What we know:
This protein has two domains: 1-42; 45-149, Immunoglobulin-like, CATH 2.60.40. Helix content is 23%, strand content 47%. It has one helix spanning 8-42, and strands at residues 47-52, 55-60, 66-73, 76-86, 95-98, 106-116, 121-134, 137-149. A hairpin with a 2-residue loop joins strand 3 (66-73) and strand 4 (76-86). The longest helix is centred in the N-terminal third of the chain and has 35 residues, at 8-42. The N and C termini lie far apart (82 Å).
Amino acid sequence: MLTEQISIWEIVTAIATAIAAIGAVYFGWVQTKINKRIQALEDYVAVSFIPYGDKIKVLNTGKLNIYLYRFVIGERTVGFDKPRMIPANAGDASWYWIPPNGITGGDFQISLYFKDEFGKKYKADGGGSILKVENDRAEVSVWTNSTSLFDWKI
C-alpha cells in the first residue's frame, strides 16, 4: 500500500494560495465600488439658473450634454418640437436663455424638463422674482432648488 504524505510546504502553499484568492476577490470588490463612484462623478447632471440682464440663463453645470424638451416659467409652458442641446464643458456656450415673458412682477417658479445623453429624464426646479420693469426690460433675480431624476411625459 502506498501512502502519500503531505509535506508542510504543500500545506503552506495551499493556505497561501487560498489567502491570495480571497485577497484578489476583495480587491476586485473594492475596485468595482471605486469605479462606480468615479463613473457617477463623470456622469453628473446639474442645471443652474442665473440672472442675465432681462433674461434667465440656464447653465449646464454638469458633466454631460443635456437636451431641453420643455420649460415652465410662471404660468407659461414652452415645448420644443426638437430638443435644445445645452452642451457640457463648453465654456460660454454651456447655456440657454429663457425670457420671463408675461411675468409682470413678483415671484415665479421655473421648471425644466430634459434628458441627458443616455436618455435619462430629469427635472430642474427653481424660482425667481421680477424686481422692477422699465421700458419693457425686467430686472430679474433667480435661484435654483434642485436637479433630479424625474420620469416626465410630454
